Amino acid sequence: MYGVVIMLKSPFTYSQQIEKLREHGCNIADEAFCEEILSRVSYYRLSAYFLTFRRKDGMYLPGTDFDKVYRLYEFDRKLRRLLFSVIEELEVYLRAQLSYCHSHKYGADGYTNPANFNFHHNPNDFASRISDLVRGSDKLPFVNHHIKKYEGKFPLWVIMELFTFGMLSYFYAEMLTPDQKKIAHNVFKTSVANAKSWLYCCTNLRNICAHSRRLYNSTFSVIPANIPNMDKYTERKLFAAVMAVRALCPSAEKWNNEFLPAMSALFDEYGDAVILRSVGFSADWESLMIK
């Protein structure tokens, strides 16, 4: 409404923030530690981890403890870092597979020909995205080299080094159907529909991890297709997203011998604070995740 002045909340001092937490029923044993965490993390970011303990009237459940809530924050932070490392490896693998398949069939610069993509492909938008990537990375030696020596022309396996995970997912979704089927069957051992869904889900999860957004007790907007052991609740929780990463992960050995033990150790370390259902995990999650 025009002419109406919206008054924002006034900022609270750390002491006021501590008092507000106590007024809502949070136990704080060490004020100095609490203030240190609030100064390092911020009240607003940390408040999201209190949602698990909040009643409908805004008060916290009896026994809500600041130290325990902070442990949830630390669990979430470490979990994001662990997941990001797995997705990063998947991203590198995806670049290698997509560039190899497409360039061997259509040539080093075949990606510049709209005829080599399906009807969803928007060549102007695609070219604009690539131009933006090059312009934003022109100080990198390999980019500068191709600008100077090849007049800004890049073979697919080079330009794909600049692609984000989202751009890789977008590229796959716009490949011609026979090429999609080849990648889905030979690389991911699944259908095109599943591969596209899982890539989209991994893109979403990757962005959440990269931007330090909350995983714990979050409801995801992207639901991966054909993930077993899911219901209406768990399909929108972290477990479903991690299962999509599992489905695409190129190495069962690394998944089972590196990622799963690290994840299990993390859950053990914070077992006193973590509620499995808040991330959609069941008591037997480890056996379900073995690849």
Summarize the structure.
The chain has 291 residues and is mainly α. The chain has helices at 14-23, 31-41, 43-47, 66-106, 123-136, 141-149, 156-159, 165-173, 177-186, 192-210, 238-248, 252-269, 285-289.
Describe the structure using short key phrases.
0% strand, 13 helices, 291 residues, single chain, mainly alpha
Q: Layout of SSEs?
A:
Elements: H1 14-23, H2 31-41, H3 43-47, H4 66-106, H5 123-136, H6 141-149, H7 156-159, H8 165-173, H9 177-186, H10 192-210, H11 238-248, H12 252-269, H13 285-289
Helix pairs in contact: 1-2, 4-8, 4-10, 4-12, 8-10, 10-11
Protein described:
By secondary structure, the protein is an all-alpha fold. The chain has a domain at 77-106 and 164-289. The protein is 57% helix and 0% strand. The chain is built from 13 helices and no strands. The chain has helices at residues 14-23, 31-41, 43-47, 66-106, 123-136, 141-149, 156-159, 165-173, 177-186, 192-210, 238-248, 252-269, 285-289. Helix 1 (14-23) crosses helix 2.
Count of beta strands: 0
- Shape category: globular
Classify the beta-strand content into a percent band.
under 5%
Gyration radius, in Å: 23 Å
Provide mean pLDDT, rounded.
94
Oligomer: single chain
Main β sheet profile: none
In DSSP terms, counting alpha (H) and pi (I) runs of 4 or more, how many helices? 13
Helical/strand content category: mainly alpha
Taking the alpha carbons of the first and last residues, their distance comes to: 55 Å
Question: Which stretches are low in confidence, meaning pLDDT under 50 for 5 or more residues running?
Answer: none
The percent range for helix content is 55-70%
Encode the helix/strand succession as letters: HHHHHHHHHHHHH
